[in-house]
Amino acid sequence: MPTALFTPIKVGSSLLRHRIVMSPLTRLRADADHVPVPLTTEYYQQRASEGGLLVAEATFIAEDAGVYPSAPGIYNDKQIEAWKNVTKAVHDKGGSIYLQLWHVGRATVSAWIPGSKLPVSASAIAINGKNTAGMDYEVPRVLAVEEISQITQTYADAAKNAISAGFDGVEIHGANGYLIDQFINTSSNIRTDQYGGSIENRTRFALEVVEGVSKAIGEERTAIRLSPWSGFQDMKDDTPYETWGYLVNQLQERHPRLAYLHFIEPRDQFINDGNPTADRGDAPFRKAWKGPFITAGGYTTTPKRAFETTEKLENTLVAFGRSFIANPDLPLRLKNDWPLNKYDRSTFYTSGSVGYTDYPYYNPGTARDIKN
Ligand SMILES: Cc1cc2nc3c(=O)[nH]c(=O)nc-3n(C[C@H](O)[C@H](O)[C@H](O)COP(=O)(O)O)c2cc1C
């Protein structure tokens, strides 16, 4: 088996010893005040490894940035103190940890926002279908230009909080149909001001957030996650290669020292009409970006691809989602070709330790091989 997956790489100020990254994974185990609980420390501590990078779950940058019950925040002292336990536990094992910064925009429910305020977005376009509370998505309120710059500042403040909490850096959540993605895609942005219309305008908010966060905590501690091919939450762009190509070129030009770019590969369940699978892929973005690049999506079902990818592509890391949920010792298992625990989807978003901290470490006596 090729071994590039287990060679060192510098990401921001962290010198990693392997390229297996834990993908950001929402688990909804924080308390009612959006404060991480001791179990969360145990969960990340279990998944930390010497020289390994974890990206902690999407975390609200403000009280009104999303407010799913039991998702964590990074906007007050109690949350910062609780996250300190997590970062310390990971650092004590020799690992690094970034925090994913989250504003969900229209992907929420007014009943969950303090003051029952309407969700906000680039344009007054609701997501089709039912939200997680079982109701139709509401038509969001359009953000005014001054509010957009306030939110950029809120990202920067949250990034500073993350650094105070001991994180090695932050990953701006620019993927999966949340606020930044809602500005980027033509399906959710029909603005006619400087934040809508042209590619330059639709990517302006993303670039301003990167700029604001970089200024606040340093470019080398700032990263962004993007998902050009995801149809989740009605995302669809008329010209994905041009749109994200422009964005990546701008990032390369303006912020070449960002810690990394994180791209989610096209996956079957995220089909974008009009973009046949064969024509999709992250290769052009990968080429335009010269720094560390994390690729995610589907490695859980085909882990061997992680070996091939890192063998073929320099400066590349691979993020695993579902198999990191189910395998606290995933890097060791991949290194030794040990079988993987199967993940249990029914406990992804429940509460307590079941399906969270009770997945076993490898034990030759009980393990079952689920690898394809
Ligand atoms: C339970 C669950 C929670 C997730 N939460 C997040 C999240 O908070 N932020 C994010 O960017 N992606 C999130 N994702 C997507 C994963 O980070 C990852 O991209 C996806 O699972 C594909 O990787 P895999 O095939 O290795 O599972 C989540 C996925 C799952 C299964």
UniProtKB/TrEMBL annotation:
One of its GO terms (molecular function) is FMN binding. It comes from the Eukaryota. Residues 5-340 form the NADH:flavin oxidoreductase/NADH oxidase N-terminal domain. Gene3D superfamilies: Aldolase class I. InterPro entries: Aldolase_TIM, OxRdtase_FMN_N, Oye-like. Pfam families: Oxidored_FMN. PANTHER family: NADH OXIDOREDUCTASE-RELATED (PTHR22893), NADPH DEHYDROGENASE 2-RELATED (PTHR22893:SF91). This is NADH:flavin oxidoreductase/NADH oxidase N-terminal domain-containing protein. It comes from Phycomyces blakesleeanus (strain ATCC 8743b / DSM 1359 / FGSC 10004 / NBRC 33097 / NRRL 1555). The lineage of its organism: Eukaryota, Fungi, Fungi incertae sedis, Mucoromycota, Mucoromycotina.
